[in-house]
Each structure stands twice: as structure tokens, then as C-alpha cells.
Amino acid sequence: MLTSISAFVLSGGYSRRFGTDKALYQYEGQSLIRYPLELLNEKFPTVSIVAKEAGKYEWLGFPVVPDIIDQQTPLVGVLSGMVNSNTDWNYFQACDMPFLQPGILDLLASRFEELNGETQALLPLTDQGVQPLAGFYRKNTIDSLREAISQDLSVREWVDTLVDVRKVNFGNALSYCNVNTVEDLDAVSA
Hints:
By secondary structure, this protein is α/β, with parallel strands linked by helices. It is built from six helices and ten strands; from the N terminus they run βββαββαβαβββααβα. It has helices spanning 34-41, 74-84, 102-115, 142-150, 155-161, 182-189; strands spanning 5-10, 26-27, 30-31, 46-51, 64-66, 89-94, 121-126, 129-130, 134-138, 165-171. Strands 1, 4, 5, 6, 7, 8, 9 and 10 form an eight-stranded mixed β-sheet that branches. Strands 2-3 form a two-stranded antiparallel ribbon.
């Protein structure tokens, strides 16, 4: 267990492409958000949900951190988690990655422990590129987060502004596949 790290699951935004609340969509008998919550609950001492509408997720039994800025970007979720965190390092994962396997997270965590905290972020790299919504971030990135939000940068653009980002190459992107539509989910699970 990564005892000095807080974990946060980003519940997503308005799910416009998905057509219904993505986090609460039922997949193989449970809501999509349940997959990362259960996985992270085994690995981290505290796991919280970051949400625009906190009341929608209280029934899951995890603390819910409300977004601190009313703006549609995952960066607001990361910032909200960071501001509410009591730890220097924090792990963030999007709710729409139901295929992430414990062994993959263990490998990423082992690389994190090897770093001794000497970086600003540790992110998985797949054949689809860097996966910024399934990684470790240091709290000293808060100022750059605020700046990125004010400039309307994407998550990947923000990551590119950080001074020191380490990447762990995983090759195949299936474990880090995020589903943006019901069709994405059907295609991956077929």
C-alpha cells in the first residue's frame, strides 16, 4: 500500500459524448466509477471522488470532493483534489478506465517508489501516448494547474508545461483505455 499518497477518482464532466452519466453507467453489473474505486481502495490509504455534483456519488461510501471552479475540464478535478489533499503526492484516475489491472498499477507504483519523489509527475506511456488521467502528481504543481485552467489548456498541454515528468512505458494501451461513448465500451469489451 502506498501509505503517503492520496488517491482521487475523477467522476467526469457532463458526459456529453457518452449520452448519459458515464460514471454511473452500468457495465458488467456495476457502475463504471466502481472499478477504479475498488482498485485504488486496495492500494491507497485514502480514496476520494472528485465531482461537479457531490451529492450524486455519496451513496458509494467514499469521500466526495466538490470541484472548486465551475469550468468544464479535468484539470479542475485535479486541482480540486490537490487543494483538498493532505499529502505531497497524489494519484488521479479517470472514472472511465474499467480495464486497468492491479498488476499494471503495481508496476507504476513500484516505479514511483524508485523515484524517491524527485519529479513533478509520473505517468504511464502507451502506444496511444501519455495517459495523464492515471498518474501521480506532486502538490507543487498547483500553481501550474491554476495557470493551465486560466489558459484553457488541455490536460496533455498542462503536462507538457511541467518541469519534470517521468513516464513509464506500458506499450499496449488496453489497460488505460478510457471510454468516451457507449460504443467505445462495447468495442473494447467485445
